[in-house]
Each structure stands twice: as structure tokens, then as C-alpha cells.
Design goal:
mainly alpha; Hydantoin permease; about 70% helix
Length: about 500
């Protein structure tokens, strides 16, 4: 008996299957269920807008600007950003396909490769990283709020722990908005991205006029010799990849709403790399100008803003706050809140998941991560890239190599079903994960092999992918052609 319908490459559950699962399983709730056909409504333009909004943010600015601080010149930094963006787009698009075809969010997709209980491992790993980004954006916003208060309230800077107070206040605002869900600031998001673009262009114009044109601004040569350049380029490009490695995992949270595979693919392909490169160029240019104006590369935009007059500090601070709130609720709450929901679908709501995310972000110590660019790219991006790489490889191997894009949608929500494995955990996925991590850790402890650690995302992905493929290619959970045809009703669009 068919439990799912394939219409033009989009698979949905039958009404009978929905009714049975909604009443009889703890693995189902309104946020985790697969999309209906009508909910597949996002066009390619929607995905392009999503990436433009997420790419034009302060972490992107800081990532690109910091490469100037490492000693790169402007074109070396822009090229590094573009190459890293194009590389990470490959796993993003590969994982996007599963979300679009089956309409499932990331925690449910993870059940396919780790099992109904084992899925908590990749879901919580992604949640921890998202919480870290939540804290980083809150710190940017808290710094901006502190700068505004310092200019408009006399004696504010003499108050003990004034920056900490500003951060905690801004953090609390973020958590309260996040509790209402991403829809709460849908209109705000449409305003925030173009506002930040205008602000970035205005900052660029300021820099150009202050240093008498682009010629002077971009004339600063690289301060790293050719041999040492590759030592800076390699971890930097891996850092760019790691920057979006999180989205390479939970992109199904968004592509599950796609109208067509072609639309979501084209929308993402034409937006993310271009936006990252263009916005990075602005950050790189302005940071190059700060070397000429102040004798040092100021890669933290808030630290640059405070050098302006009071009016500019207030306006710039408000724009930073707008950007930080938007990116936090739009990109850094969805995955962890869904992951915490998945721990106990009947009890943990999205709002409670948002609160847990906020509390976890404090433990990630964003003030330390942003205290130096080396902490940001080598400690933060490098470490979590090594953590997430094997998960990316396992997800790609399972969907494309092991199952050939075929799965039993209803069984992802069935207790003790096909994808339950051994008491809810796929031990083969755990073994592949450990192997992927081990490859990176070898580079951390063995002299001469440090490139394995600094490139942890890449080597972890490759190791996890091949290990999982070898372990799972003959697994009994893989559907045969006959089994897939039996549960799938093919419907042609008239």
C-alpha cells in the first residue's frame, strides 16, 4: 500500500499516513512533520533573498576584514572568500536536494543516517554551533548598544561592567524575539538586509573619500611572503567553508519549502558566492583604509564605528543592532530550537528551544572568540569545522551514495521502524563519525600533519563520507527498487 506520493519530484505523505502518524507516534509534531504539497511554495527568488540576507552580516564583514589583519592584500582576501564560498556551496546543494524532495527538516533528515535516537547527535552538534553564532551576533549587538549608551548617557562608560550590562540586555531582547519564532520578524528581515547594504556602501564612500580614492586604499601590498601566504590562505579558506558548514547540514530546514529543485538550486547558486564576495570587498576595502588612517587594521566594525561623531555612532549602532537581531532569529535559532524540540517533541516547544539556545550561547563565551581575529578564524571556525565535517560527509553519502535519493518517508516518523537501527542508534554512523574526527585529531597531535587539523572540515568530510559509504552500502534499511515503487504513488501533473 502506498504511503507517499511523488509529484514532479516532490514526495509527500498520503492523507491516511498523516492521520495515522499524527495520532500514534511521539516522533511527530507540527514543526517536525513533512511538508504538504501546498507548503512547497518557495521560489528561487526566495532562496536568493534568504542568502543575501544571511551573507550581509557583521560576521561576514569581520571574516573578510580579518584577512587584511593576517597580512593579505585586497584581491587575495576576496579570492579566498570566493573560493571558500564556492566549495561549501557543493555540500549545501547536495543536502538541499533531500529537503526539497521529501519536505523534511534537518533533525528528521538526521534520523535517516543516525537513527531515531541517534539523530540527537548531529542535531545537538549543529545546535551548539548555532548557539555560538547566536552569542557572537549578540556580542556585536551588545557592543553597538554600549557605544550608543556611552554617547547619549553621561558617565555610562564609568559604570562598572557597562559592556556586560549592554550585552546581557541585548541578549535578552534577542531571546524574547526568538521565542516568538522567525515569523515574528519576517518584515524586519526584509528591511534589515537593504539597510545594511546602504550602511556598508556609506561606510565604503567614507573610506574612499578619507584616503583619496580606491587607488590608495587598495594599494596596500601583502605583508605575507609567498611561502607564508599559503600558510595563511589554507586555514582562511577552510574558515570560510566552516563559516557556512552549519548551513550545509541544516539547509533542509529551508529547502523543505522549495517549489522545485531547479528553483532552489539556481537561487542559491546565483546568490551566496556573489553576495559573499561583494560584501567582503566592502569590508576588505574599509579595513585597508583603516591601516592608512589609524596605522592598524580594524577588523571589528563596532570598534570602527566608535571613532565617529555621536550622530554616526547612534545611527551605525542601530544598524548593527538591526542586523544582529535579524540574523540571530533568522539563521541562528531555527536549527537549535528544532534540535531541542526533537529531544522531546511532545513537551519542548520552539519557544522553549529558543530559551535553551540563548542560555547555551552564554557558555560559548563570544567575548573571548571576538577578542582577536586569530581566535575567530583558527579557534572558533577551525574547531567547529573539524567537528561538523564528518556529519556533512555522512549526510551526503547516505542520501546520494547509499540510498540513491530513495527513502520511506513514513518510516522516519515510525517508532521501532525501518530507520530505528539498534535501539534507535545507527552504530555504523557513529563509527564513521569517530573515524572522521580521528583524521583531524591526528593533525593536532602528530608533528608535520597539522594540515589535517587546520583543514579539519575537508578531511573530516572525506573520511566520514567514505567510511559511512563502505559500512552502509549493503545495509538492510536501504530500499530496493521494488520496495520503493510499492510505497510510492507516482502522480503526473496535468
Amino acid at each position: 500500500m502506498a504511503t507517499q506520493i511523488n509529484q514532479d519530484g516532490i514526495v509527500t505523505l498520503t492523507d491516511a499516513a498523516i492521520g495515522q502518524l499524527a495520532q500514534n507516534t511521539s516522533l511527530w509534531n507540527e514543526d517536525l512533520r513533512p511538508c504538504t504539497r501546498n507548503e512547497h511554495s518557495w521560489s528561487g527568488k526566495r532562496f536568493a533573498s534568504l542568502w543575501v540576507g544571511m551573507s550581509i552580516c557583521l560576521p561576514t564583514y569581520s571574516l573578510a576584514s580579518g584577512m587584511i589583519a593576517l597580512g593579505m592584500n585586497w584581491w587575495e582576501a576576496v579570492l579566498t572568500i570566493l573560493i571558500g564560498s564556492l566549495v561549501v556551496l557543493i555540500p549545501i546543494l547536495l543536502v538541499s536536494h533531500a529537503g526539497t524532495k521529501f519536505g523534511i527538516p534537518y533533525p528528521v533528515f538526521a534520523r535517516l543516517w543516525f537513527g531515531s535516537r541517534g539523530a540527537h547527535i548531529p542535531a545537538l552538534a549543529r545546535a551548539v554551533i548555532a548557539a555560538g553564532w547566536f552569542g557572537i551576533n549578540s556580542w556585536f549587538g551588545g557592543q553597538a548598544l554600549d557605544a550608543i549608551l556611552g554617547r547619549i548617557i553621561g558617565g555610562w562608560d564609568t559604570v562598572g561592567f557597562h559592556l556586560g550590562i549592554s550585552f546581557l540586555l541585548f541578549w535578552a531582547i534577542n531571546v524574547l524575539i526568538a521565542m516568538r519564532g522567525p515569523q515574528a520578524i519576517g518584515k524586519l528581515a526584509s528591511v534589515a538586509a537593504p539597510t545594511l547594504v546602504v550602511a556598508a556602501v556609506a561606510l565604503l564612500i567614507w573610506a574612499v573619500t578619507r584616503v583619496d580614492g580606491f587607488g590608495h586604499m587598495l594599494s596596500i601590498g601583502s605583508t605575507v611572503k609567498e611561502f607564508h601566504f599559503w600558510g595563511a590562505f589554507y586555514p582562511s579558506v577552510i574558515g570560510v567553508i566552516a563559516f557556512w558548514a552549519t548551513m550545509a547540514l541544516n539547509i533542509p530546514d529551508y529547502t523543505r519549502y522549495a517549489l522545485t529543485q531547479r528553483g532552489q538550486t539556481t537561487g542559491q547558486l546565483l546568490s551566496m558566492p556573489v553576495t559573499m564576495a561583494l560584501f567582503s570587498f566592502i569590508g576588505i576595502s574599509v579595513t585597508s583604509a583603516t591601516v592608512l588612517l589609524y596605522g592598524q587594521a580594524i577588523w571589528d566594525p563596532v570598534m570602527l564605528i566608535v571613532k565617529f561623531p555621536t550622530f554616526a555612532v547612534v545611527i551605525g549602532g542601530l544598524i548593527v543592532i538591526l542586523s544582529s537581531v535579524t540574523i540571530n532569529v533568522g539563521a541562528n535559532v531555527m536549527a537549535p530550537a528544532r534540535a531541542f524540540e526533537n529531544l522531546w517533541p511532545r513537551r519542548i516547544t520552539f519557544a522553549l528551544g529558543a530559551v535553551i539556545t540563548g542560555l547555551l550561547s552564554l557558555g560559548m563565551q563570544p567575548w573571548y572568540v571576538l577578542s582577536a581575529f586569530s581566535n575567530y578564524i583558527f579557534v572558533w571556525l577551525g574547531t567547529y569545522g573539524a567537528l561538523l565535517g564528518p556529519f556533512d560527509g555522512i549526510a551526503i553519502a547516505d542520501y546520494w551514495l547509499v540510498r540513491s535519493k530513495r527513502l520511506d518517508l513514513a518510516q522516519l516518523y515510525t517508532e521501532n521502524g525501518r530507520y530505528d537501527y539498534s535501539r534507535g542508534i545507527n552504530l555504523r554512523a557513529v563509527y564513521a563519525l569517530i573515524l572522521g574526527w580521528a583524521i583531524s585529531l591526528v593533525g593536532l597531535f602528530v608533528p608535520g600533519l597539522f594540515f589535517l587539523w587546520s583543514g579539519g572540515w575537508l578531511f573530516g568530510l572525506i573520511g566520514g563520507l567514505f567510511a559511512y559509504w563502505m559500512l552502509m552500502k549493503h545495509d538492510p534499511t536501504v530500499l530496493t527498487d521494488a520496495e520503493y515503487e510499492q510505497i510510492t504513488e507516482e502522480v503526473q501533473i496535468e
